[in-house]
Structure formats: C-alpha cells, structure tokens
Amino acid sequence: MEVGPEPQYDVFADEFLDHARDGFYNAYLDRPACLDLLGDVAGRRVLDAACGPGLYAAELAARGADVTGLDISPRMIELARERVPGGEFRVHDLDSPLDWLPDASADLVLFALALEYLDDRVSALRELRRVLRPAGALVLSRQHPTGDWLRHGGNYFQPRVVEEVWSRGWHLRFWLTPLEQTCDELRTAGFLIERLTEPRPVPEAAAQDPARYGRLSTEPTGFLAIRAVPDPRG
C-alpha cells in the first residue's frame, strides 16, 4: 500500500494555482496559519518544501526571507520561478535525500499540505531536520484527520491510502493517518512539537463566504498546523 512517486499535481498545476491563489481553504485557512507559526522571516533562510506554485514562497519573499523551494512537479517549479524570480527552486522528490542541501543550512522549513503524499514520511522529516539549524523550526500543515474520517469513515486509527476526486475533477491519492501518528513521526524524526493549532478562517474570510466561514469556525474539518523544533537530545 503506497501513494507512489507520481507528481500528481503536475497535470493540473495551472488550475491549482488559479484555485489556491484566492481559494477559501488555502488563502484564508492554511496560508495565514503557516505564516503565523513561522513568525518573523526577515533576513532568514527558509526552505519551502513541496512549494507548489510559489504562493507561500511569494509571501515569504515579500516579508524579507531568502527562499529556497522544492517540489516533485516540474510545472509547479516553473510557476514558482515565475512568481518569485529572486528565489531558488528545483524539482525534487521528498522520498529522496536532500543531498544538494548541506546540514544546518536553513533557519526555517515550511512543509505545507504535502505530508500525506509521502510513503516514507519519517525519512523525509529526518532530512528536513538535518537541514535545519539547531535553533530553527519546522512548520508543517496537513488535512485535519477528523475531516478525513468524516469523509471516508472506517477505522480512524488505521493508516490507509485513499483516492479522491476533488471538485474540479482532480484525481488524488494520499494517506489517511490519525493525529497521533503524525506526532509520533515527528518525534521519531527528531522533532519536538512546540505548538499545534487547528486553524479557523481569518476574519477577512467572512465577506467571501459567510456560510463556510461560520462552519469552519466551529468544526474541525479544515487543517492542522504544527510548529516543531529540533530535539536537542538528537
């Protein structure tokens, strides 16, 4: 049982950019939550792992960060380079080592909404820890596991790969895992969780979609966001 190495988003990368730029979940839930957990990025080296079309990277660069991004999708990397000309972006599969990045070379790592597409999550997280400086932090977001369970049912605690067709006809394959497994994977990879949030929509979202704003302000059907730091014990 695995997701496999196929760059699933490559076939609809341009559509995804149009969707995520102003889409409710991306623009009003996940991006604000991740940027808040990253804190002040001015003058800091930030690795944007699974950077997609560069929407997070553009905001990081605008806030003064020195951004390096990677993604498994060649088309996503093209879009990121167009959006953030001053950044460094390259195609890379996180199931492979980050052998082009030296130890302790990043102040911060952002890993937004991509953990569930990896088969060997612990190895990838270990690599992200390796490239982090000792005083650095990883900000990771994922789909809220209760939202996954509400859609798919079954045994919440049983990790499994599922396939979904999203509203625009996008076919996706990814892991469903309980929250405790994500916490264990971070611990095994050498991280300590500093903060865990269940993002609610930012106030600006109320004008975009009042009904969705109200629902996602009260139900755990959106995302989780975690700030984790390297465990000094190794």
Question: Describe it for me?
Answer:
InterPro entries: Methyltransf_11, Methyltransf_Superfamily, SAM-dependent_MTases_sf. This is SAM-dependent methyltransferase. It comes from Amycolatopsis endophytica. This protein is an alpha/beta fold and 234 residues long. It has a single domain, classed as Rossmann fold, CATH 3.40.50. 35% of the residues lie in helices and 26% in strands. It contains nine helices and nine strands. It has helices spanning 13-22, 24-38, 55-62, 74-83, 121-131, 145-152, 179-188, 205-208, 210-216; strands at 45-49, 66-71, 88-91, 106-112, 132-143, 160-165, 171-176, 191-197, 223-230. A seven-stranded mixed β-sheet has the order 3-2-1-4-5-9-8, sandwiched between helices. Strand 4, helix 5 and strand 5 form a beta-alpha-beta unit. It is globular. It starts with 12 loop residues before the first helix and ends with a strand.
